[in-house]
Amino acid sequence: MTHKILPFLILLFVIGNAQNQRFIYEYKFIIDSTDRENLEKELVVLQVNSKGSEFYSYQKFKMDSLASIDVDKQIHNDSEIINPKHIYRGKINYTVSKMYPSFETYFKTFMGANEYKVSDERKPNWKILPEKEKVGEFNTQKAETKMYGRTWTAWFCTEIPIQDGPYKFHGLPGLILKLADKSGSHIFELKGISKNSGREPFKVDPRISAPAEVAINQKQYQKLFLELRNDPGKTLRELMNQNDAIKVIGEDGKEVDLAEMLRKGEQQGKEQRAKNNNLLELDLIK
């Protein structure tokens, strides 16, 4: 009897607090299409309130929270140098914001020396299908769409009345609990639900130096993305041209040769580009 009641109570909790929740997904993804055995995994969060949603890396949120605590400690100790030691090393270095009820969508990421806020007006055109499936304790229905150069299958739950989902996906009559592209390269699946603590998802602490946010549209973003992808040394060269007195100190305390640093950076960038060929938004590069 207890086992039958528990899922029902969970469902009541979710429905009753649907506009004030964190939905935690496991994101599985393959970075290199030629090495499909190398499957990456990361927890991501869809944080929902009455005004909209924020999608972000759970690990980055934790690390940025620790960094903010470090800043508090250093300021309390009258330290003149703020140098957070907690640095996020994961793969999800972006956030996606959606504004309700229009689902105006913004993709935020760092490229080069700047942070960009990219407006994306593309909307999924879903085909709802009759197939049903259980995702965890929830009843879901199947839907398909073509977006970002891929064909996607989603399983949505009408019992959770939120027309949202992981990443930029939205527009179904219920929360998307599971989402996968046809090749199995990118898979999101709901793993947990928690009530919002009222705390903002990770924001850059104003006491930590950070570049200003630059607003651009999707076409401008793609142009800039390809420029930096094809020329990984562009940002460093521009910094060197703007200030010929710039110096970089290595971990050993010695000055780094910028020409050598540029050469290594360009080589590493080319190697990363060759491996990072299976982007979620495949149409960025094809």
Automatic annotation (TrEMBL):
Stored Pfam families: Porph_ging (PF09697)
InterPro entries the UniProt entry points to: GLPGLI
Name of this chain's protein: GLPGLI family protein
Organism: bioreactor metagenome
Taxonomy of the source species: unclassified sequences, metagenomes, ecological metagenomes
